[in-house]
Amino acid sequence: MQEFTRDGLVFDVTDSGPRTGEVVVLLHGWPQDRTAWDEVTPLLLAGGLRVVSLDQRGYSPRARPPGRSAYRTCELVGDVRALVDALGVNRVHLVGHDWGGAVAWLFAERHPERLSSLVVLSTPHHQALAWATRHSDQLLRSGYIAAFQVPLVPEWVLSRILPRLLTRSGLPAAKAARYAARFRDPGFAAGSLAWYRALPLTSQALGTAWNVTRHREPDTAGTQVRIEVPTTYLWGRHDPSLGRAAAERTAREVAAPYEFVELEAGHWLPETRPHEVASAVLRRAGATPGP
Predict the structure, then answer these.
(1) What are 228-277's pLDDT values in tens digits?
(2) Does the N-terminal or the C-terminal CB of the chain have fewer CB atoms within 10 Å?
(3) Is 291 inside any structural domain?
(4) Residue ranges making up the domain that contains 262
(5) 63 occurs within a structural domain
(6) What pTM did the predictor assign?
(7) 13 - beta bridge partners?
(8) Is 37 exposed, middle or buried (0-12, 13-18, 19+ CB in 10 A)?
């Protein structure tokens, strides 16, 4: 598979490995793309898995709808559901980092029957994140999200400082240069920031955690569901944006076998800790690591 469609949008996909292997779906975050998983993918393939990564909504050139309402969490989760359906499998192992991790938590809440396992990197569960904003310094750590709500200015500023900002946060220079080059595309910049700008439209604690919720999504209003899928959560203790309080509290939101892996790392786990990430996925998938 090289692409799939949903509601007229076309998403670019990288699909590799044996077609008979169990499927792992990889969800990137901001301001990444599916190349964030380039160092992780070969390790998963060596374990016999079929690995599928995509450029998500706002990132794929043919999947950049206008308006922030098109980036509500129900749409982001719907895109993943459409991919799983297009793959023609009943269940997948879902892995997400950063914003991709937020989507992975929500997918596990809404569609647990489509998952064999869940591995989330960096991003705590949204209920844990909401709690941490009231009991720790998490609201200060997330303050940049309020700045992203301003129209146009973040695109202009970030297009000039993003490479330096990313490298200072621990991302390898080559990856920082790639993501920054893509961000200079106005469509990419606006589409990727639309994820943040849609937060006021969501009822999930994901929005509440960043103190921007104003309206409810009708399909999620009032719901709070514990995760019932075997789950591993990896967190870097030096992550500048996502602190310990939410990371440790995430265990309370999982009602299935759960593993918390704390790494001597920062935020960019797929790019800087691919072996630890792959090992966690392979353990959950019950696969044998390659040589």
Answers:
(1) 999 999 999 999 999 999 999 999 999 999 999 999 999 999 999 999 99
(2) C
(3) no
(4) 3-285
(5) yes
(6) 0.91
(7) 54
(8) buried
